[in-house]
Here is the input.
Amino acid sequence: MRIAIIVPAYNEEKAITAVVNDMNAVARDHGLDLNVVVINDCSKDSTSEVISTLDCIALNLPVNLGIGGAVQTGFKYAFENGYDFAIQADGDGQHPAAEIPKLVKTAKDLNADVVIGSRFLEKEGFQSSALRRFGINYFKKLNRMLVGVSINDSTSGFRLINKKVLEVVREYYPDEYPEPEAIILYSLLGFKIIEVPVTMKERQGGVSSIGGSSSVYYMFKVTLAIIYTFIRIRFRKKNNH
Amino acid sequence: MAKIQIIAIAVSLLFLLYIVRLIVKGKLREEYSIIWIACTLVLIVFSFWRNGLEVMAGIIGVYEAPNLVFTGAIFAIFIYLLHLSVVVSKLHSQNKQLAQEIALLKEKILKK
Here is the structure.
């Protein structure tokens, strides 16, 4: 079982070293065949130099693509190099490396295509702001309405996907705020999604991709994207049959 | 020929000349120039044919001829802006793919 940990990093010079080292330590402790793939999304700070000294695969994007484009670069790398699983984790240390074996074990034991590390199944650890929780609840309801799948934390960027899903996302993955939209895509394509509880920490450095005033734009944009994805996949399926 | 006609024709011709120059210099791709040349030709036709606008308005049923100009022009502008948005979206997607390929290739080269 070869596992790629995909870590998108934008101006994460302070946090990235600890993130990568933690992951490698966990891999050693649990005997996992794991490579950390850091995608430097054209950072303005010294992220590029920092990651070149770490025990990881460094992919440096020549222009800033945003989180979706950066993560997709990692998916492409994982697919082309024949990895069995790809785990997406943030570069700011929010997603603790110690939870990685849990995701892998769930994927193996329950034969899941997508495993989402969710912070809401158990009320433990960092629970994020009220506004974010409101957004998460909203997407939960939207998901249930459109595809009948109830995901508690559809904004979680801590998730595992297997080879079958990699083949899809290397071709198409949303650009901006990809997480909730990707869930709709996965459920419409019939992938088995399992959610597991994880404990998350507050970010150790860097700035969130979703900030105060842009929250409204975020909700609107993601809602539109979800509806478009829904229409596109449904329509395509009808044509194929 | 009225003074305003001469001015309109001269301006239209200068505009046409400028578009041709842009194409020749490679600053404007031919496919995007078609709409501009078409617009200029329409301007030239109506510069010569003074009653043309009134006639066209009469055919379509627009009472005030200038309204036809505004309606037509605004509609054309909206369509062209939409077309440009499509072009930008396509460029955006191609740019993303290229950037990703470069990152993957760079990694491959450095590994060797």
